[in-house]
Amino acid sequence: MLFEPRLRLGVTGLSRAGKTVFITSLIANLLQRGRMTQLRAEADGRLIAAAVQPHPDRETPRFDYESHLAALSANPPRWPESTRRISQIRVSLRYRPTGFLAGLTGDSTMHLDIVDYPGEWLLDLALLDQDFTRWSLKALKAAENASRAPHAGEWRALIAARDPAEPFEESAARPLAAAFTAYLGACRKAGLSGLAPGRFLMPGDMEGSPALTFCPLPPPVGRDPLHAEFARRFDAYKRSVVKPFFRNHFARLDRQIVLVDLMTALNDGPAAVADLSDAMKEVLGAFRPGRNSWLASILGRRIDRILFAATKADHLHHLEHDRLTAILSALLSQNLAHAAFRGAETHALAIAALRATVEQEGDGIRAVRGRLEATGEEAALDPGELPADPASVLAAARAADAGPAGTGWLDGAFKVMNFAPPRLSRGEGLPHIRLDRALEFLIGDRLT
User: Fold this and answer.
1) Which DSSP symbol is given to 148?
2) Do residues 363 and 382 make contact, with C-beta atoms less than 8 angstroms apart?
3) How far is Cα 85 from Cα 130, in angstroms, rounded to an integer?
4) Per-domain residue ranges for the chain?
5) Which positions ≥6 away from 114 have C-beta within 8 Å?
6) What superfamily in CATH does domain 6-117+249-357+423-447 come from?
7) Do 312 and 318 form a contact (C-beta atoms < 8 A)?
8) At 304, phi and psi to the nearest 5?
């Protein structure tokens, strides 16, 4: 083990970004590498073997690769269950190194530890620098936004109706927390992204605990027992939920891929794109980019490569992929520049971890064809063209008078559909778009 290095790769993204499918396809295509021609070690014939290994961390749940692959390989195939907790899996790669020492050292092994965690948990890291009053003011202001206000009515009404001077009662806390959770859930269903605290939507075994029974409140005027108790619970949430995640998992990552469901946001309209932009700023604010050195074990590791991947590129004709990447890069421009300044390498890419469509052309139509998720029937769709100027998309998303999708947004012609997984052929790796290029950026330098 002394001469077998380990690289910890974090895989995250907000809901619907495709984390589970990405990891499943990544492992499947490492085990069966016929479709990985853009991974240089494979193209050069130096990647000899890959194997899933028992993970040394016995306390973290294992990523259930076999069950997820079985779902994609079923008849009919189905999408696996989405990420709801942290998990990890180890894939060991045996390769032939390059350089003048290659003939002396023989084959080398690198252990790739893939850590899967919900992107909503990254949003929680911003809470560490806030107290309850500051967080509450920010959350209440966000709820006044035109895209969120329609979902916040019940929660805001309960806040307005309460008597701040009343003694604290658990029976008063629960309805407020439930209404706030329902508000977050409604925002997610509407395609919005920046939803924190993350465990409110993915409580797991913490459901019903006092650490998840609070909500934002206006600043107290005089004595306010409920505000004081919610402030204590907010601190408990940071102490018992957020800090352990940062210390035990996030702070130990070497590389990171952030999956972004930009396609769905573009389809849902300008409010969804603006909200995604704000959420990504929160997500990126959690990273500690920079180059690692021998002092990393003392000072704490830093993520030295970050890949931002716009998923579901198979929903578009390949001639639109560069425009999708350009929009993602524009959306993240300030954060990419900040990470680069700190010494981290960053890259943006349009990918499909599992290609669910094939392209169809003719008579001026550039369509994609696949099985519809809702009906299982084959259908062809021309989703339309993306703007050549990504700045126009961001400007429209930020405009105060931006209308809903279909009223001038992307000329009213852009539309995506939900496709079912493709029927897989035995003996072939999972079809994808640029998964090999993504992996080359993330780990290619470690296989030399």
Assistant:
1) T
2) no
3) 24
4) 6-117+249-357+423-447, 134-245
5) 9, 11, 23, 26, 27, 63, 88, 89, 90, 91
6) P-loop containing nucleotide triphosphate hydrolases (3.40.50.300)
7) no
8) -100, -5
**Where are the strands (E) in 153-286, listed by range?**
255-260
E strand intervals along 32-126: 47-53, 87-95, 108-116
Helix (H/G/I), strand (E/B), else coil: 316:
coil
CA 418/CA 264 separation, integer angstroms: 10
Nearest to 259 by CA among 207, 200, 311, 181: 311
Q: Do you find a cis peptide bond into 197, omega within 30 degrees of 0?
A: yes
**Per-10-residue mean pLDDT for the chain, 448 residues long?**
80 89 97 96 96 86 95 93 87 90 79 91 86 96 90 96 95 95 92 86 79 94 95 95 87 92 89 85 68 40 86 95 95 74 82 96 84 92 89 81 53 79 82 98 96
Residue linked to tokens 């069966």: 32
Residue 76: cis peptide before it, omega within 30 degrees of 0: yes
pLDDT, residue 373, reads 92
pLDDT (0 to 100) of residue 21: 97
Task: Tell me how far apart the alpha carbons of residues 245 and 152 are, in angstroms, rounded to a whole number.
Answer: 29
- CA gap 331, 406 in Å, rounded: 21
> What is the distance between the alpha carbons of residues 116 and 37, in angstroms, rounded to a whole number?
25
3-class DSSP state for residue 137? Answer: helix
pTM: 0.88
Instruction: Output the pLDDT for position 289.
Output: 53
- pLDDT digits over 41-82, tens only? 999 999 999 999 997 787 889 999 999 999 999 999 999 988
Per the CB < 8 A criterion, the answer to whether 124 and 141 are in contact is no
Concatenating the DSSP letter of every residue in 389-407 gives -HHHHHHHHH-TT---TTS
Residue 222 CA, distance from chain mean position: 42
Which pair of structure tokens corresponds to residue 438? 């993504």
Which of 144, 175, 149 is CA-nearest to residue 161? Answer: 175
Cβ pair 265, 273 in contact under 8 A: yes
* Calpha distance 252→316 (Å, rounded): 36
DSSP codes of every residue in 334-372: HHHHHHHHTT-EEEEEE-BSS---EEEEETTEEEEEEEB
| The one-letter amino acid at 242 | V
A 10 A CB-CB count for 184 gives: 23
